[in-house]
């Protein structure tokens, strides 16, 4: 069992005896829930013949009774074990009955009922998450309910927009409230465990799919979604990058937040953005927008590894930033881009050499310096006047080798990796 | 090195683990048993596969004891098959985690894996049922982006891509070509043509199976979706944008490998070492000081990652990038020396899940006396060979 301390045989037996009533309860629930399905199936089978009003009435009553029994039993079970997927499925099947647009007389009434059912499902999912904040099924149930509401709003706005605008629908303000609540709940959960990847995934879902339309302000964005998409996407990216940064500054070791930042990292294309403004003449002395963004990112990550040099989160991110430089300069070859790349490699090398002097037994600065030396040697070989720089190239290669050899001792667990790198450098 | 002296102190308690697995399946009145009802079929797969790995190879450390044990199975084959067939859900044409539950890809793979383990795919699956399962799986693939849902309710996760591809591949190998011929031999030929240039048997079998898979699902689009789940660190998440996680990497690497598209991980330029190494290096960084592996940076080690990480490294041919002696010692330290079983970390309560993944990890490291396990299909090498899977990834 994940994280439970080992017990003696005696205390195992004692625990077994103590949990017996709960075991019996679970067994009973399983049996009833499986049976429920069969009863439900039979019911449908019998219905085929049709009948008079009394029968219909009777059937609706039985159905209502069955429904409420199903709700009670499944809720009981998922509150103990939220991974019981069949329970959630039964609840989803029932939810589907309420989410269909019938376009009939009582739309208002229908919407009220739908809202209540949605609240109910979100509540049960929350109960499941209380039991296990990492329950795949409980998170998925939430995502599913919200996605269905969202579909319903989209479909009703497209089908009825000509007769009466969607501003009549009470679902829009309802969704806004729901999303607000979701954000609060996520905040609580991420504060309790800032590495819960389910919560991070769900946040991305809420932000990407929903917030764009319902949270960022005006409800009736629906009509102008085409126009606004770009702007909204940019705003969302900025907000999320900022959010990640907040989480990072609270805890530099929050790898999930670094990851989140990478997802929302703005891939600016200088050639498009500044084609008219910047030409080769403006050279490397005045950074382009993307260069400024990258520089700031290197600055942020260096704060992290200066503070916690043994923590791998920031180093992983740093490695990625270096690869972004490569992608950037190869997108279109220009000498100013290349100069910027080499200049940045050099700056990072100086900076991290400093860390390595402060932390001589820490493997991370040694590893990153080794890589930077290797990268610099490679870059210079590609350069036009590489003959002139042959001695510099040799110096970088030798330094890289020295450092990888040092890493064999600093980080013996990964000897095999360092040996492979060294072999390839021969 | 101190690590090897540590590992020599501890033996693998094969006999006790067999006992532990048996007891866990017999004592149905424990809270652990009751709480895992929904995944009973996967639980069976863990227990039965661990048992096979322990006893299949006669040259076991505790030779005599285990040889006797071998006669006495965890469950009789008859009971196992009866249970699996009770888990089949007619409505979805998939297997459920337990009788009466809803069918799901996760348990469909477990069921097929157990059939392969017992060398009885054709005996247990009629052609009709096999085809129904294939159709059900094809319906779970999104035409839009190639992703797979776990069931009709639409949860998307790269885990399900692996389940779909692995299940289809095992069926394609295990059911034999004839099963898939009647809806057009031609389609099979077209689908497999580009793979069929390679000469040896291994490739022939694989491309035949891939040809069959191509008739059922969109293999390329499925792989494209997996690549959309790749991250800044080279790892994979459950959906696009999801954080890298060793378990998720296992399923993505495995799925790509089954589809013969592992090349997608690498740039065309061999010179891009750093770029090409990044996934395997990230996996190597999962090993922590005590020798165990974690699933994500700055997390505690856990025996189950011995499997998720090491099998991925094996598929990438980089097992030697971590200290295997230290990992072995860590797993052996997680054994319950008294009542058997393996736990997530030393001195925690053991369970069947960690017992399986611990033994599977040791098997990947060719631990003495253990049958070798295939890092992609998570079944004994000998079992997958029986259905014609000859892999070169270990």
Fold and architecture overview:
- The complex is a heterodimer of chains A (426) and B (394).
- Chain A has helices at 9-47, 53-80, 85-99, 107-131, 136-160, 171-192, 197-214, 225-250, 255-263, 270-273, 289-307, 312-331, 335-358, 363-382, 390-410, 415-425.
- Chain A is 77% helix and 0% strand.
- Residues 43-51, 160-165, 215-225 and 275-284 of chain A have low confidence and may be disordered.
- By secondary structure, chain A is an all-alpha fold.
- Chain A has a domain at 267-275 and 284-426: Protein prenylyltransferase (Serine Threonine Protein Phosphatase 5, Tetratricopeptide repeat, Alpha Horseshoe).
- In chain A, helix 6 packs antiparallel against helix 7 (197-214).
- With 394 residues, chain B is mostly helical.
- Chain B has a domain at 106-117 and 126-185 and 207-260: Glycosyltransferase (Alpha/alpha barrel), CATH 1.50.10.
- Chain B contains 19 helices and two strands.
- Chains A and B meet through helix 1, helix 3, helix 5, helix 7 and helix 9 of A and helix 3 and helix 15 of B.
Straight-line N-to-C gap of chain A:
48 Å
Quick check: average pLDDT of chain A? 85
What general form of chain B does the structure show? globular
Shape summary of chain A:
elongated
Through-space gap between termini of chain B: 26 Å
Q: What is the average of the pLDDT values of chain B? A: 90
Which structural class fits the helix and strand makeup of chain A?
A: mainly alpha
Strand content of chain A: under 5%
The computed structural class of chain B is mainly alpha
Q: Using only CA atoms, what is the Rg of chain A?
A: 30 Å
Please report the total strand number of chain A as a whole number. 0
Subunit organisation of the chains: heterodimer
Secondary structure tally: strands of chain B: 2
Biggest sheet overview of chain A: none
Portion in helices of chain B: 40-55%
Q: Can you tell me the residue ranges of chain A where pLDDT is under 50 for at least 5 consecutive residues?
A: 43-51, 160-165, 215-225, 275-284
Largest sheet of chain B: 2 strands, antiparallel
Helix-strand string of chain B: HHHHHHEEHHHHHHHHHHHHH
CATH architecture of the domain at 267-275 and 284-426 in chain A: Alpha Horseshoe
